[in-house]
Amino acid sequence: MSLINRTTVFSILSFLCFLVESLPQTPPSPGGGKTGAGGSAQKGLAFNNTSPSLDVFDPYSSITWCHNWNSAPNNGADSKFPFVPTLWSDQSPHSENWASLAQGHSELLSFNEPDNAWQANMRVDDAVSAYRRLMMPLRINGVRLGAPSVSNGVGINDKGIEMGMGWLNDFLDKCNKEATNGACIADFVSVHWYGCTDGCSVETDVAAFQDFISKAKEPGLPVWITEFQRFGDVGTQQQFLDGVLGWLEGQVERYAYFMVQDGILTNGGQVSELGNKYATG
User: Which H helix or E strand runs over 193?
Assistant: First the structure.
């Protein structure tokens, strides 16, 4: 090849490289990884102050985030997994320093099971008011807010409060009435699900889980499942995970099995057989 030809080819290749580098780059989704309907759901870890260190899950690239039902990480948190804070309720001490603890996070969770008499236990009107006061001021610079995390309970609880999707739909209806003026906006919904306690089959639980998540999608917002579990021995829980993990892809934005704890996702501080199934399934 002549010097002229080599020079010409080099010039063409340099120009092509310049064009490729000039193409706009797709920004990462908040929190890293792929999210949203049609994409890969982000698999997370639910933990508390009795959990072993989350670093035992470091080898699993499928794990992308963590939460602990609280506003700050505790001894189980590991820096590899982005932490999502939760405002457990509007009461002290949970609301104290919430605004400062929430700083620097791209997603925030609100009110843990307000439909459960033994958890946050909040009437919808009170929750909307507290959400406006404590959550909405943080919805700036792309920060996304989760609606209160409801259980899969049905009927009325011991305190006279409607449970499950009835509570959530009422909250969203009342919140949406104020959305036009920016006073109350939820960017995604968060739900909890637990299986039957009467010895039902794995197939029954899989069907019930899928039905509940389908109902959680009806408001048209991305869905996070921040707690879910099939009751029973390791074998039946593994069968349950076999039945739902593949289905969750493209259905929800994030999910976390209950929980990083010896006897469930860990044993002796190490990833258990069930934990490995969850992380690799």
Answer: strand 189-194
CB-based contact 149:187 (threshold 8 Å) = no
Q: Which residues contact 232 (CB under 8 A, 6 or more apart)?
A: 195, 240
Kindly state the helix (H) or strand (E) to which residue 17 belongs, with its residue range: helix 3-22
Chain centroid to Cα 57, Å, comes to: 17
Write the pLDDT tens digit of every residue in 80-122.
899 999 999 999 999 999 999 999 999 999 999 999 999 999 9
pLDDT digits (tens, 9 = 90+) for 197-250: 999 999 999 999 999 999 999 999 999 999 999 999 999 999 999 999 999 999
Residue 61 CA to residue 15 CA, distance in Å, equals 37
To the question of pTM greater than 0.90 for the whole model, the response is no
Q: Is 139 in contact with 183 (CB distance < 8 Å)? A: no
Order of strands, sheet of 144-145, starting from the edge strand that comes earlier in the sequence: 86-87, 107-110, 144-145
178, 223, 273: which is closest to 42 by C-alpha?
223
Provide the residue count of the chain: 281
Helix (H, G, I), strand (E, B) or coil at 145: strand
Closest CA to 150 of 203, 212, 229: 212
Question: Phi/psi at 273 (nearest 5 deg)?
Answer: -60, -40
